Amino acid sequence: MQKWPSALLCVSPKHLPEVFQTDVTTKQNMPRPERNISPHINATTLGLLIAVLLFTPAAHAASAYELKGIQGALRDNVEAHLSGLALPCDTPRWQTEASMSRARKAARRALEALGHYNPSIKTTLRRQNHCWRVQLDIQAGPPVRITRLDIAVTGDGRDAPRLTALLSDPGLQLGGTLNQGTYTQLKDRLKHYARNHGYFDAKFTAHEIQVDPATNTARIRLILDTGKRYVFGATTLQQDVLEPRVVRGFLSYRQNQPYSSDAVVESQSTLAGTGYFGTVRLRTQVDQRADGKVPMHLTLSPARRYQLLTGVGYATDTGPRLRLDFRNRRVNRAGHRYAFTSQLSPVQSQAGFKYEIPLSNPR
User: Over 212-259, what HEC string results?
Assistant: First the structure.
């Protein structure tokens, strides 16, 4: 029976470069002689020194890596991985060997992320404009094809419409080229959906890509067990601004309704837009969930009670005008508020008064 070694997943959904370290030591860094600079340096000399430092090739090393043989997404991903590898112009030649080795490893990882596990990578080193240039001649080789695709959802959320839609179009297909970024995107989308819809016990019972480089084939297993869906528990209020019934009237959810992060975001946005509160913080206390319920905690601080707005303007039809608005944004804990508005001008003046009382549905 042929052994299927597990592949290392290393690329984000957008194929950004992976941060990694390579412990390669060829020689100790040679000590540089100390330079004593006289403290009696005039402004002209100092300016020349700064100019030299700014415009020497060592300070402005352009991209040191040149790619040959690949185009498109493969080239973009390799360039992204190489972008984090610096090769200053003043690097000693013996140190460039380590840089070339790191460049080959980075290029290989970038190619593997897009399904090419048997590339040919040759590096050539040269000096150009007093700087090092590393040329990578790359033959990507045949792509790894997906020969088995096992993607499923179990638990209470298995029939959720959006999860069903994800499974029907996962972005991966039998016979298609392996793309680790697409796999990671799918995994993240499943995970985010589960959490945003109250499946706080969700977990992947299987999540692996098995690659056989000898045959350029891959097997994928990704199974999410959503567990049960939690409902909203009690909402604890920490505030001394309005009566609790008025505050709760602004919430977009009710106790014992199925949890939804959209309802949480909408509630927080509604509370922030009322003008009653200076800060709004609505937290889902996932770590305190129990018996199928997840408690909520709402912290509110008051906004300034009084607001005075003034303005001066000019218009051809009214001439100069003065605007004066006064608002009491919180008359009492029942949420009453009023506003007095006025506009004065030689031609036309007007004033208005508005008093608001929240009813059973303050939204």
Answer: ECCCCEEEEEEEEECCCCCEEEEEEEECCCCCHHHHHHCCCCCCCCEC
Residue 283 has pLDDT above 80, yes or no: yes
What are φ and ψ of residue 123, in 5° steps? -115, 140
Give me the amino acid identity at 355.
Y
Quote the tokens at residue 147. 């020969």
Q: What is the pLDDT of residue 57?
A: 41
Pick the closest to residue 60 from 80, 89, 31, 86 (CA basis): 89
- For residue 238 the two structure tokens come to 């920490």
By the 8 A CB rule, do 62 and 131 touch?
Answer: yes
- What's the pLDDT tens digit per position in 178-198? 999 999 999 999 999 999 999
Q: Which of 357, 31, 359, 14 is nearest to 184 (CA)?
A: 14
Q: Residues of 175-206 as b/e, b for ≥16 C-beta within 10 angstroms?
A: ebbbbbbbbbbbbebbbebbeebbbbebeeee
